[in-house]
Automatic annotation (TrEMBL):
Keywords: Cell membrane, Membrane, Transmembrane, Transmembrane helix, Transport. Belongs to the binding-protein-dependent transport system permease family. This is Carbohydrate ABC transporter permease. PANTHER family: ABC TRANSPORTER PERMEASE PROTEIN MG189-RELATED-RELATED (PTHR43744), BINDING-PROTEIN-DEPENDENT TRANSPORT SYSTEMS INNER MEMBRANE COMPONENT (PTHR43744:SF1). It is found in: Cell membrane. The chain crosses the membrane at residues 20-43, 83-107, 119-146, 152-173, 194-219, 252-276. It comes from the Bacteria. SUPFAM superfamilies: MetI-like (SSF161098). It comes from Paenibacillus mendelii. Residues 84-276 form the ABC transmembrane type-1 domain. It is a multi-pass membrane protein.
Length: 290
């Protein structure tokens, strides 16, 4: 929107609309303060990290914290780059597995008739009630039984079965007319082709929402590294950050590295959300989630 168009639209607004815009702008600015603090805190030099009273904005930005995080940790047994690499691999493969499995399951539950359909849906709804902590022991027993400790699959497997993802995508697919799918089948498309060429493109908003939810869960997960991984080289970035905040960062020297690591953990979530926020809103409208 150009500056002239914005001014014209602003002049046409009523006094109530202008007041509402001002209030919402103030709320948005207030809610963005934690983001501004995280960005500034990571670039603070050593002496600014311990000023009293503490400063909100950085006065003398420096990259020393990132230098310490990347280069000093390289001299340790497991360098920082290994944790980062593990997180990227786990996040990429988990996103792919969750989107594929959840979308196909949602399509079957939404558009295909079979006997125990209501029972399966009831099980999915029941699974939504359980907190992740309640299934920690069963997950550990299953992964130990499968002997996939200290493997990437041990990180990925607990996330593949995602009741939230299946529910969101199913609610979105329910809005697709059956006549559209039948038209594709009349033209000679198989069930899989209907899913790939018709259903998948129309459910992109839901898939984007599932991608964000899954990425946030995987990118910040420490449970797999803590419970399932005994080999230090198979642990992920969140575990490394947790070790900073519970160990080295409690010392004076570790505060800068912890601030830099916190920013690196936060940025991917922010970027992904900014790119997909429109898709999320579309999903919430179509799925009926308030």
């Amino acid at each position: 929107m150009s500056k002239i168009a914005f001014i014209t639209k602003l002049r046409r607004m009523t006094m109530f609309e202008k007041l509402l815009l001002l209030v919402l702008g103030a709320v948005a600015a207030f809610l963005s303060l934690p983001i501004v603090f995280i960005l500034n805190h990571a670039f603070k030099p050593f002496h600014e990290l311990f000023l009293f009273p503490p400063t909100f904005l950085v006065r003398q930005p420096t990259l020393t914290n990132f230098y310490d995080l990347f280069l000093r940790s390289a001299d340790s047994i497991v360098p920082f780059s290994r944790y980062l690499f593990n997180s990227i691999i786990v996040a990429a493969f988990t996103l792919t597995a969750v989107i594929l499995s959840s979308s196909m399951a949602a399509y079957v539950l939404s558009k295909i008739r079979f006997g125990p359909k209501k029972i399966v849906m009831g099980g999915i709804m029941l699974a939504l009630m359980f907190a992740p902590e309640t299934v920690s022991i069963p997950r550990y027993l299953i992964i130990s039984w499968l002997e996939i400790n200290d493997t990437y699959f041990g990180h990925i497997l607990p996330f593949i079965a995602s009741p939230v993802a299946v529910f969101l995508i199913k609610q979105f697919i329910d809005q697709i007319p059956n006549d559209l799918l039948e038209a594709g089948k009349i033209d000679g498309a198989s069930e899989f082709q209907v899913f790939i060429r018709i259903v998948a493109p129309l459910t992109m908003p839901a898939l984007a929402t599932v991608a964000i939810i899954t990425f946030q869960g995987v990118w910040g997960d420490t449970q797999a590294s803590t419970l399932f991984m005994q080999d230090e080289t198979m642990k992920t970035l969140p575990y490394f950050v947790m070790s900073l905040t519970s160990g080295m960062a409690n010392t004076v020297a570790g505060q800068g590295m912890a601030a830099a690591a916190g920013l690196l953990m936060f940025l991917p979530n922010l970027v992904l959300f900014l790119f997909a926020q429109k898709r999320i809103m579309e999903t919430m409208v179509h799925s009926g989630v308030k």
